[in-house]
């Protein structure tokens, strides 16, 4: 059989409906409508490249954890997270195999900002704006020394302004 995925997509008229932006240990996921991407989640950090290892890629990015008081991702500490947490989850007690080291915890800030930590290290950051309820505040990001913050979901220009040109962008189709 001499079928390629591209030929099948052309014949069926399907087009990609998701986009993944990757740069170092940064990954954003978007819904794709035509060529317009709406980024609803942001992940920074992997077990191989934790959040604190590539801070140079996002040292100028700020996040609004406390309303009206953005803080640089570079300046966030475990102490700061503990002061503003809404929940702490011990990953070892969830009953599934975690890719994070034994003893890791997730600190939830608000309802849509999650940090995975171990000891004094921040390993992972996850922001999510999928299915926001009216009473939930979406994550807000910006650049240090700029007054304006953008609210998730992000568009392609927001992502490029915050993180620069990607190493890899994949447009894919999901059922």
Give structural notes.
The protein is mostly beta strands. It is 13% helix and 39% strand. It is built from 3 helices and 12 strands; from the N terminus they run H-E-E-E-E-E-H-E-E-E-E-E-E-H-E. The chain has helices at residues 5-12, 78-84, 156-163; strands at 18-23, 26-33, 36-44, 61-66, 69-72, 87-90, 105-109, 113-118, 121-128, 140-143, 149-151, 168-172. The strands form 2 sheets. An 8-stranded antiparallel beta sheet has the order 6-7-8-9-3-2-1-12, with helices on one face. A 4-stranded antiparallel beta sheet has the order 5-4-10-11, with helices on one face. It is globular and about 45 Å long. The two termini are 23 Å apart. Mean pLDDT is 88; it is low at 1-12.
Mean of residue pLDDT values: 88
Q: Give the structural class.
A: mainly beta
Enumerate how many helices there are, as a single number.
3
Order of helical and strand elements: HEEEEEHEEEEEEHE
Low-pLDDT residue intervals, each spanning 5 or more residues:
1-12
Give the biggest beta sheet.
8 strands, antiparallel
Strand element count: 12
The radius of gyration over CA amounts to: 18 Å
Morphology = globular
**Strand order in the largest sheet:** 6-7-8-9-3-2-1-12
Q: Percentage of helical residues?
A: 10-25%
Strand content: 35-45%
The first-to-last residue Cα distance is: 23 Å
């Amino acid at each position: 059989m001499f079928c390629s995925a591209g030929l099948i997509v052309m014949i069926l008229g399907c087009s990609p409906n998701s986009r993944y932006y990757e740069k170092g240990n940064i990954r954003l996921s978007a819904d794709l409508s035509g060529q317009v991407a709406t980024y609803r989640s942001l992940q920074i950090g992997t077990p191989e490249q934790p959040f604190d290892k590539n801070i140079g890629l996002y040292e100028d990015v700020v996040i609004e954890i406390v309303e009206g008081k953005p803080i640089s991702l570079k300046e966030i500490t475990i102490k700061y997270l503990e002061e503003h947490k809404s929940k702490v989850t011990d990953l070892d007690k969830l009953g599934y195999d975690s890719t994070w080291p034994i003893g890791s915890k997730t600190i939830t800030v608000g309802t849509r900002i999650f940090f995975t930590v171990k000891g004094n290290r921040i390993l992972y950051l996850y922001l999510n704006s999928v299915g926001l309820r009216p009473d939930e505040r979406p994550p807000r990001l910006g650049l240090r020394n700029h007054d304006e913050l953008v609210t998730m979901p992000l568009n392609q220009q927001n992502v490029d302004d915050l993180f620069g040109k990607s190493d890899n962008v994949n447009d894919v189709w999901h059922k």
